[in-house]
Amino acid sequence: MTTTLLISDLHLHPEAPDVTEGFLGWLERRASGVDALYILGDFFEAWIGDDLLDHADQDPSGNAALAIRVAAALRKLADEGTAIYLMHGNRDFLLGHRFAATAGAKLVTDPAVLRFGDEPVLLMHGDSLCTRDEAYMAFREQARNPAWQEQILAMPLADRLQLAAALRQQSGEATSSKAEDIMDVTPEEVVRTMRDHGVTTLIHGHTHRPAVHELELDDRLARRIVLGDWHPGKGWEIEIGSDGDPILREIAL
Ligand code: LP5
Ligand code: MN
Fold this sequence. Notes:
Layout: E1 4-7, H1 17-31, E2 36-39, H2 63-79, E3 83-87, H3 97-103, E4 105-108, E5 112-116, E6 119-124, H4 134-143, H5 146-153, H6 157-176, H7 187-196, E7 201-204, E8 211-217, E9 220-226, E10 234-240, E11 246-252
Parallel strand pairs: 1-2, 2-3, 3-4, 6-7, 7-9
Antiparallel strand pairs: 1-10, 5-6, 8-9, 10-11
Helix pairs in contact: 1-2, 2-3
């Protein structure tokens, strides 16, 4: 019997200690002993670079201390035998190999294909499926540009913290005036992506609209399973057992 757990959109942040405590408790209680844990993006509210790990003493924001604590907890799980995989989200696309190594985790590409017997499962953060959100797609292209990232990572830590806060504020203003359907996945893009990867199961997060959607894909029944975001006292997980059948669950933290 193998067990794989998948979570996303925890948005860990020093100002949301209840979510951090809830996650650390879940990790010990629930993830301990499972074969694999996939974290499908937006694990952190904002990630400004792995060098944060070296600067807990220069970081009054508490982000560095949080990152160090979370990495240590993941590391413990990894050392006990759980394979841990991290995918980038739109908030933590700067998460790098240094953090992953500290946490005993591997970075995986978006999308990634997971194989359970004959049934491949496609894993994504989900933001790239929101193609009607043109302003976001433009931002995403810039944010994922290696030259831009290099330039950003060369900035002093304090400036990056400030820039991240400004981007979060801009994003908050932008999203409050966007239509709801624009911020959801584009159905045609879902079908195209699933077809391209030859899958009938897609798991993603990002939209904060946890649900199991059935759809028709080239005359076959397919499903898109959406993880939810975490709040104090409440989170979401998907469990996949040996039969390869994913189960979406709301969890009490
Ligand atoms: O994140 P959320 O839920 O608010 O909304 C997302 C999309 N927004 C984003 C932006 C992130 O929130 C920003 C996080 C930054 C943290 C890490 C930064 C590290 C690098 C910088 C510091 C070193 O992803 C939002 C979507 C929504 O999901 C739903 O899908 O709509 O998209 C936007 O809000 C994008 C806006 O529409 C356009 C933003 C324009 C910003 C332009 C600034 C240019 C950057 C220049 C910087 C020098
Ligand atoms: Mn997201």
